[in-house]
Amino acid sequence: MLGLKPLHPRYLLAIAAGSVMVLLSGSLWIGPAAEPGLATVALLGAGTMLLLGGLALRRAWLETASAKRTLEEAIEALPASVEIFDESDRLVAFNRHLLEIYPHMSTDFKRGVRFEELVRKSIAQGGVPAAKGCEEEWLAQRLAARAASRKSPAEPLLQNVHEGRWVRIHERHTRAGGIIGVRMDVSDLIHEQQRLAASKAHLQAFVRTTPNGVLTLDVDGHVLALNPAAEALFGFAANELVGSHIDLLFGIWMGARLSPQALVASPQEMTARHRDGQEMTLLLSVAEVKTETAHSFVCIITDLSERKRQEVALQEANAQLAKQSITDGLTGVGNRRYFDQLLQQEWQRSARHGHPLACIMVDIDHFKLYNDRYGHVAGDECLIRVAELLRACAGRSGEAVCRYGGEEFVLLLADCDLAGAQVVAQRCLDSIRLAAIEHEASPLRRKLSLSLGVAACVASPQGDAVSLVEHADAALYAAKQNGRARLVCSEQAA
Ligand SMILES: Nc1nc2c(ncn2[C@@H]2O[C@H](COP(=O)(O)OP(=O)(O)OP(=O)(O)O)[C@@H](O)[C@H]2O)c(=O)[nH]1
């Protein structure tokens, strides 16, 4: 596509014919005036010179043509689009890649056409999306930049052409004043950059808005960057933490200097401290990022402090609930459900170890009269008082006081035989007597008194725990029958 052609052989023939003509006419003209031999030699010499000159000219043209062909092939073989403009900015040569980049201009690339004209046509056919709506202004800037580049080499231009293709244009001025332009199709590169920019923007949006703290660390554990959630979590501004070692946040609690490599494992719960000194429980997940050019660690931090607080509160609530479910609401001692569970439990234990188990049934004497005399609320207070006294009498480990129902209580004494239970029962009687609670309606010295039935046994695996209670209850009945304010020990082993 270069614009020069070799000299055609017919021109050389014309030169030769002209030489012969000159030779003949010269000999005719000189003939009469000069010595014929000398004139003929002179003319023959001149003709020969002309002929030789023509042959040399032909060889030069042939060499030029060959050089141009080589150049043409070289330009064509280049992987980029190449165009050459002369000093008047007219197209002199170009290769087929130019047509591939601008297929809509395939008929416009002709030798001799001016650069400005080509750009105008390309703009008109939508080949320069950036120029849309400001065609003249864009063209003027492009031409000005091209002219300015004559003085100093310009930076490569990145231009979006049709169908989302991108070309990088390098233009260099030749010494003769022309311009050589090289256009490289960098669409793949630009599209990759665009994809990367999009995913980077997504990632940044996520990191900015996630409620999780995100820290990046270098291989030695120094903070490279952190997100707003991490700033809020630790109470430090990003510029205060960047460059610091993560020991500042975690290490003080670990005892040893932390290494990010050691943290790359399954998420682990760690204790850290907020700037204000408050301790936090955090879940830390660390991932290693290793590429050809980068090596760092990304830490995702979840604040578990609130969840921990809620867990503790829930545990406490559950424990409270569990306690309430086995506690008598009025007196605070164990309720009937608790007693039934405990009885089974202790019965099994007694059966296993062969240790005795004792039960004391306690009933307030003439409590109906107490209620009648002092009212139900006072009756409640009286029940609370009696429960306190009983608890004080049977408060060691293995001893339990429960409300059996109404004004009746029951004491279960693990590892305690009848004699031991009798001692406890007597302590209860004494305690109530010493408390001297007014009971004006009671025929028994006008003081509150208790009746107690005591039973004990070594449980047998086949036996029924309830039999122990029944014996204690029978003993209580006997105490009531025998005048109240006393204890009776069951004579029967359960
Ligand atoms: N204030 C109050 N009274 C209760 C409660 N539970 C049961 N009582 C009362 O306790 C009394 C029990 O009466 P009784 O079973 O006749 O027995 P008692 O009057 O103590 O006579 P003895 O047991 O034979 O000495 C009833 O009046 C019930 O109303 C309670 O939670 N609070």
UniProtKB/TrEMBL annotation:
Membrane-spanning segments: 12-31, 37-57
GO molecular function: diguanylate cyclase activity
SUPFAM superfamilies in alphabetical order: Nucleotide cyclase, PYP-like sensor domain (PAS domain)
UniProt-listed Pfam families: GGDEF, PAS_7, PAS_9
Domain (PAC) ranges: 266-316
Record-linked InterPro entries: Diguanylate_Cyclase, GGDEF_dom, Nucleotide_cyclase, PAS, PAS-assoc_C, PAS-like_dom_sf, Rev_trsase/Diguanyl_cyclase
UniProt keyword terms in alphabetical order: Membrane, Nucleotidyltransferase, Transferase, Transmembrane, Transmembrane helix
Protein name: diguanylate cyclase
CDD domains cross-referenced by the UniProt entry: GGDEF (cd01949), PAS (cd00130)
UniProt domain PAS: residue ranges: 199-243
